[in-house]
Amino acid sequence: MTERPTDQAKRHDWLIEETIKLHYKGKIDAEIAKNPNGEHNKNVGEFYPDIIIYRGNEILIIEEIETEDSVNENEFKTQWEPYSKLGAKKFILTVPKEKIHDAIILTKNLSCELWYYEIKDEKLIFNKYR
């Protein structure tokens, strides 16, 4: 995991909370776990993805949220690629709109849903790329 500067770490944690609120809370019949920067609240194997949606022992969704500083080859090798192989029904990678091109290139052979986000007029907007 890339060590984030404090401002990026705060943004990352805020993005995790907003993603859960906008996409999952009250909308799914499953448990929600989160692992913001450095926390180890719920694991999948030896990993601690940002968001884990699960029912019992079944992992439904693993979602990893990135900030501008963490869309890179290191994250691909140490997180995205392993997360895509953990047996979840779905692996979602969410990146800033400004980094979607980099994420497309890095994930070209990866089995994942790719989303991007942007902030317009102080509102967080998500879009699905694939």
Polypeptide structure, described:
This protein is of the alpha/beta class and 130 residues long. It has one domain (6-128): Trna Endonuclease, Chain: A, domain 1. Helix content is 28%, strand content 29%. The protein has helices at residues 6-24, 73-83, 100-106, and strands spanning 31-34, 51-55, 58-65, 90-96, 113-120, 123-128. A 6-stranded mixed sheet has the order 1-2-3-4-5-6, with helices on both faces. The radius of gyration is 14 Å and the shape is globular. The two termini are 24 Å apart.
Termini gap: 24 Å
Question: How many helices does DSSP assign?
Answer: 3
By helix and strand content, what is the structural category? alpha/beta
Helix share bin? 25-40%
Which SSEs are present, and which pair or pack?
Blueprint: H1 6-24, E1 31-34, E2 51-55, E3 58-65, H2 73-83, E4 90-96, H3 100-106, E5 113-120, E6 123-128
Parallel strand pairs: 3-4, 4-5
Antiparallel strand pairs: 1-2, 2-3, 5-6
Annotation keywords:
130 residues; Trna Endonuclease, Chain: A, domain 1; six-stranded mixed sheet
